[in-house]
Design goal:
Blueprint (H helix, E strand, L loop, with lengths): L2 H9 L4 H10 L18 H11 L4 H8 L4 H17 L3 H13 L7 H5 L2 H8 L6 H7 L4 H9 L2 H5 L4 H10 L5 H17 L1 H11 L5 H7 L5 H8 L2
Helix pairs in contact: 1-4, 3-5, 4-5, 9-10, 10-13, 12-13, 13-14, 13-15
Length: about 230
């Protein structure tokens, strides 16, 4: 079982028309956030079927797949990695997977790639460990490292552990990129779904200076009255 086998399986289900649509959707034009990314036009459900067939792919072959110029090859590689991490019961092997993820993070270079892996791998690993790396990523010049920093905390939120998410949200409030505003607002909304009090506290303190996109995402599940209150500040 090799990366070439996975590539052949994916190429069989590629759709040029879908690829052209996805290239526009993911902003691959010059100067856009995904400039140069190449899409084959393979849906995520179709990729998951391929993952089910090749989920035992050796880690070095996952690395070959992850380094591909094709977006769907990279996403499939990450989905395989997530499956292996979640099914693994050996702590040392889990650490090896996390180290591999961090070493190859330059290939986790689009929002769906981050969102499909950061919580599941890095966030889960850091549940009972030092989280300094997330703060390092939060101030990175790299857009995708910054997105990893906040999306990884979704795993903490699931355990009602909100402190690091709120701190990283504060760091990212001044970010200029819309994709960070959306991700940060999303995580605040996730906090609010579990406990409205810390969300309200954050909004009471920061809503006046929050980017509007971040604020709109954060308040999505609040009452109309509260939405109006925070949006009018």
């Amino acid at each position: 079982m090799t990366a070439k086998d996975v590539e052949k399986a994916l190429m069989k289900i590629a759709d040029k028309n879908k690829g052209e649509f996805l290239a526009r959707f993911f902003k691959t034009g010059k100067g856009q956030y995904s400039e140069g990314d190449v899409f084959l036009g393979i849906t995520v459900p179709a990729q998951r079927k391929v993952v089910a067939e090749f989920r035992a792919l050796p880690l070095d072959e996952v690395g070959v797949l992850l380094a591909s110029k094709y977006h769907e090859f990279r996403l499939t590689a990450l989905l395989i990695l997530v499956w292996q991490y979640e099914k693994c019961e050996d702590v040392q092997l889990k650490k090896r997977i996390v180290d591999f993820y961090l070493k190859n993070r330059k290939f986790v270079n689009n929002w769906d790639l981050v969102d499909s892996s950061a919580r599941q791998v890095l966030g889960d690993w850091l549940l009972d460990k030092d989280r300094a790396i997330l703060y390092k990523f939060a101030v990175s010049k790299d857009l995708w490292e910054r997105r990893i920093s906040i999306i990884a905390t979704h795993r903490f939120i699931m355990e009602k552990d909100f402190a690091d998410t709120l701190k990283i949200c504060e760091i990212l409030m001044g970010d200029r990129h819309d994709l960070i505003h959306k991700a940060t607002g999303w995580m605040l909304r996730e906090i609010g779904k579990r406990d409205p009090k810390p969300l309200r506290g954050f909004l009471d303190k920061h809503s006046k200076k929050m980017p509007r996109t971040m604020l709109r995402y954060a308040i999505e599940h609040l009452t109309p009255t509260l939405k109006k209150k925070y949006m009018s500040r």
